[in-house]
Amino acid sequence: MAVTTVEQRKANYKWILLGQTLELSLDEKLLIRQTWSYKSSDMGKRGLDIFVRLFELHPVYRSYFQKLRDIDIDNLRESPKLRDHGGRVMVSITDLVDTMDSPTNLRDMAIKIGRAHFSRGVRHNQYRELFAIVLDYLQDKASVVYNDAAEAAWQKLFNYVLKVIDTVMEFEHDKTG
Ligand code: HEM
Asked: Taking Cα atoms as reference points, which of 101, 113, 103 lies closest to residue 162?
């Protein structure tokens, strides 16, 4: 297989992703913004809750984080690493929401998330399961405004991010395969 440079591979993702844009109506964007505004201001704490839930459902995922693989689920809350990462995830979702009007920036953010995790072995299923927990959390927090239409709008946003990440994974795989 021909060897490609990092710049060529990035150009390749971007070429493929030109044909995959996110079509969100004004109403859908509004629902996403409204429901996300109910997130807690304590991003670290909320992000931690979301990851603890992910590890309760899938204890084996602890092993993505070197220092967490042998920690009991009950003690995970004490981990600064997990709080830090949980906070980063919440901030990134805020950035995605803030970027919905700029398709190119939104795509580039999703590419960055996929690239940051490829070598760590995080794949489609882990993101999908994480996003499902984020939506459960929102349903709970933003129950006043969270309805089926809001759920569908979020699904569209997260499915788009997953699609971009899948494309990144394919190219990263080609690089190593
Ligand atoms: C939208 C979802 C996610 C976002 C925005 C996100 C964000 C980040 C960021 C910004 C970093 C630091 C990257 C770097 O310094 O190179 C990181 C590292 C990491 N992420 Fe994620 N992440 C997400 C999902 C996940 C999932 C689902 C897992 C595993 C179940 C995961 C596991 C890790 C690990 C193991 C690291 C390295 C931590 C370390 O420094 O030891 N991430 N993530």
From this structure: 113
* Domain annotation covers residue 17: no
User: Which residues constitute the domain of residue 138?
Assistant: 24-176
Which residue owns the Cα nearest ligand 1 atom 15?
A: 116
The two tokens of residue 176 are 């190593």
In a domain, 12, yes or no: no
Determine the distance separating the centroid of ligand 1 and the alpha carbon of 30, expressed in angstroms.
28
Specify the residue with its C-alpha closest to ligand 1, atom 10.
Answer: 88
Q: What averages of pLDDT result for each successive group of 10 residues across the chain (177 residues)?
A: 67 70 93 93 92 95 89 89 95 97 92 93 96 96 94 97 91 65
Q: Indicate which residue's Cα is closest to atom 9 of ligand 1.
A: 88
pTM: 0.89
| CA 6 to chain CA centroid, nearest Å | 23
